[in-house]
């Protein structure tokens, strides 16, 4: 199902963005 794939991609992308922003805050 395409919708499931898209939502999964969005979730993983937002998780990755959150993780990288947390890393930036931790480093900076």
Explain what you see.
The protein has 28 residues and is mainly alpha-helical. The protein is 93% helix and 0% strand. The chain has one helix at 2-27. The longest helix is centred in the middle third of the chain and has 26 residues, at 2-27. The protein is rod-shaped. The N and C termini lie far apart (41 Å). The mean pLDDT is 89.
Q: What's the helix count? A: 1
Shape: rod-shaped
* Span of the ends, CA to CA: 41 Å
Compute the number of strand runs. Answer: 0
The helicity comes to: over 70%
One letter per element, helices H and strands E, the order comes to H
Low-confidence stretches: none
Topology:
Elements (H helix, E strand, L loop, with lengths): L1 H26 L1
Salient structural properties:
28 residues, mainly alpha, 1 helix, rod-shaped
Brief overview, please?
93% of the residues lie in helices and 0% in strands.
